Amino acid sequence: MKNGFTYWLRWVAVLPGALVTGFLATFPLHWVLYFTLVDGEIISGVNIKLIEYTLYPFVIAITFILVGFEIAPANKFKTSVVLTAIWILSFLGVFIFFSALKPQFELRSALSLLGAFLGLYIAWRKSKSESNIREKRICRPRKT
């Protein structure tokens, strides 16, 4: 049965699962940066906190879109479009409401939007290739 318990559970898990996984994806980013930019016990003169601070929004955005795409049981590309819209609306909300404090469009902001649109593009490519595979299975001529 398509509309069983796991089907609805996956729909319920799309938003929280994508959000939690987006934040959890920052840990591997930290480890990669730390282990590649550290010589023994001394950091090689590179401030990895600034690099992390700049790259976190990109990693969270792209992971948020792609994990939501994978969790959704059906209409995966539409789900990624909705998640991208949620991401952009929340970005605009934060940008507008906190503009009284410090209105700046920094590199982090641009990377956040780039991550969201890149995640949407990857989801579009994946959904396109999955539909092509399904069409090949359906349209394959039978051997007699």
Short description:
The chain is an all-alpha fold and 144 residues long. It is 76% helix and 3% strand.
Query: Domains counted in the coordinates: how many?
Result: 1
Strand content: under 5%
Query: How far apart, in Å, are the first and last alpha carbons?
Result: 32 Å
Number of helices: 5
Q: What is the gyration radius calculated from CA atoms?
A: 20 Å
The ordered H/E elements are HHEEHHH
Helix content: over 70%
Task: Please explain how this structure is put together.
Strand 1 and strand 2 (42-43) form a beta hairpin. The model has no long low-confidence stretch (mean pLDDT 83). The protein has helices at residues 5-24, 26-36, 48-71, 76-97, 107-139, and strands at 38-39, 42-43. Helix 2 runs antiparallel to helix 3. The chain is globular. The chain is 76% helix and 3% strand. It has one domain (5-139). It has a two-stranded antiparallel sheet. The chain contains five helices and two strands, in the order H-H-E-E-H-H-H. The chain is an all-alpha fold and 144 residues long.
